[in-house]
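I'll show a record.
***
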Amino acid sequence: MECKVEKTKNANEVELEIKIEAEKFENAIRKVYFQSAKYFNIPGFRKGKAPQHIVEKYYGKEIFYEDAFNDLVPAEYEKALNENKIEAVSRPHIDVVTMEKGQDLVFKAIVQTKPEVKLGKYKGIEIEKIEYNVKDEDINHELGHMQDQNARLVTIEDRPVEDGDIVKIDFEGFVDGKAFEGGKAQNHELTIGSHSFIEGFEDQIIGMKIDDEKEIKVTFPKEYFMKDLEGKPATFKVKLHEIKKKELPELDDEFAKDVSEFDTLKELKQSIKEKLEKQNADREKYEKQEAVIKAVTDTMKVDIPTGMIELETENMLKDMEQRLSYQGLKMDQYLKMIDKTEDDLKKDYEPQAIEAIKSRLALEAIIKAEKIEATDEEVKEKLEEMAKNYGKKPEELQNNENIKSYLKNGIVSEKAIEFLVENSKVKAKAK
């Protein structure tokens, strides 16, 4: 393989002209023929038994070119990038120059490269003081959650529905006199005051008694996930079956014993306080890191290639698609619900993608400038931690260079962030 590299007129972009020996191209064609021969049905031959030259004569000599190209080129392209120390940040634009049996395969690849970063000030950055203190109301809020989780449900039969009650209802919704899809349910459990239904619906349940039937009139929000119902008035026929109310336990020592390993309410409160203090400390640390990184990216100069942004937004969409799958949703269903296209979503993600790229490039530049490294011992420690988390032995991972490289990058990035925080200055919070 031969490769010539030239810069294009565009910033952070190069053109590679790659020549692959005719013999390699011929071998790739031969490989594709053997992989696909069984699909060819040519008169005079049993299916899949026609020789290569007969298949080429029958279908045209170019029949295997595209598949041979796709089989051969990716590895050769990667090899060319590595040999020329090119850090590609976009998919290549490929143009074939020569693709002919018996000749060298020649193609050009235009690709965007990692941009140069000019750091501004990154030592002695001033950030506002970030501090979160645990208040009594925070502790009481946590206790309230614990009370709610340990409440018992009491059936109510001698009064109508009140705010806060949990009811079971049948309902069916109508718009313009016609029932609509998804507007019907039986024995639906609803907490009055939860605002989980259309605004105004729950308020009209208040005052109903068991076995009461009622027509409830509401209007769908102007921005509703089902576009055909947006802003439309609707009538729901409702029947009430059951009323229940949560009965909260008393906040005393017995409660502490029932819900925790502590013997007194005082000890439980202290434990909650310590947990919240730890959460606040983690939050402070994270926000300080975000603040210093933002300050660095605001002062640095970098021209981010469009292809780099495209790849970042695509990766964000893939992450989102995976999260949606955990909820039993597909991307096309979600897009329909929010009335957007995939391109719309990419555009929405673009500012976030640019910030993520800037942060990554800034850290890489600081790691280089400050010669930050990960020691073998640090990598070993992280490797052992990863092995433990995945239920494996460290020996199973230690020969995997990709994993070691991933861990090393994580360590140096953490060190770079710590460096920024340690070398920052805290100023009083603006009033």
